[in-house]
Amino acid sequence: MGRKWNNIKEKKAKSDANTSRIYAKFGLEIYVAAKKGEPNPESNGALKVVLERAKTYNVPRAIIDRAIEKAKGSSDEMYEELRYEGFGPSGSMIIVDALTNNVNRTAPAVRSAFNKSGGNMGVSGSVAYMFDQTAVIGVEGKSLDEVMEIMLEADVDVRDIVEEEETIMVYAEPDQFNAVQEALKAAGITEFVVAEITMMAQNDVDLPEESVAAFEKLINALEDLEDVQQVYHNVNWE
């Protein structure tokens, strides 16, 4: 695969002013995952994936515990998982995943963010077919050959293993997320730079210089929306 992971890393480079907002989004995502199944990551695969990703963002334990405890309680808050697709400047492609308790609020807000930044929303399926759902796990402190050997010895199927910016990145099918992590943990790795299931573009694009500012404005506007959890795109973000 060999793709730089800037599109994932950029999410970790938020300023301190946005930290509370990021934590709030994780709190909601953890609550919804725990509410849909058992509030135990060992028996709830979706919850386990969210918690592993939360660790890489240093989400405080108190926020995690509070969300899980809320899911165990009698709260009847209902949230829908929604996906919007659209196009940004210069034909860039964008996927927006949201959790909302008010669809009538979310859709207009997403559409407005696109329209105000030179983009436009597309119909369902207009963009997603150009992306692949992918498990991405990044580690430091091991060489490329060492990680390859770990995967071979554990008999874990992966799409690719590459070195990117001093981090060894393992790309795998979504259903191999836990297998990859468990193999690495068994080899003594306790911390992960990246650990998530994401949507990765099949082909990246470089924007012309005159479109970069508008694209950044659009991505920021989408990520700032209360109901938006994840924003994926196909732009090389340098």
TrEMBL record:
Keywords (alphabetical) are: Cytoplasm, DNA-binding, Transcription, Transcription regulation
Write out the annotated subcellular location: Cytoplasm
Q: Does the keyword Nucleotidyltransferase apply?
A: no
A Pfam family this chain is assigned to: Transcrip_reg
GO MF term list:
DNA binding
Superkingdom of this protein's organism: Bacteria
**SUPFAM superfamilies, per database record:** YebC-like
Q: Where is the TACO1/YebC-like second and third domain?
A: 79-235
- GO CC entries: cytosol
Q: Which InterPro entries match?
A: Integrase-like_N, TACO1_YebC-like_2nd/3rd_dom, TACO1_YebC_N, Transcrip_reg_TACO1-like, Transcrip_reg_TACO1-like_dom3, YebC-like
Domain (TACO1/YebC-like N-terminal) ranges: 3-73
Query: Please, one GO biological process term?
Result: regulation of DNA-templated transcription
The entry sums up its family as follows: Belongs to the TACO1 family.
Cross-referenced PANTHER family: TRANSLATIONAL ACTIVATOR OF CYTOCHROME C OXIDASE 1
Name of this protein: Probable transcriptional regulatory protein DFQ01_106165
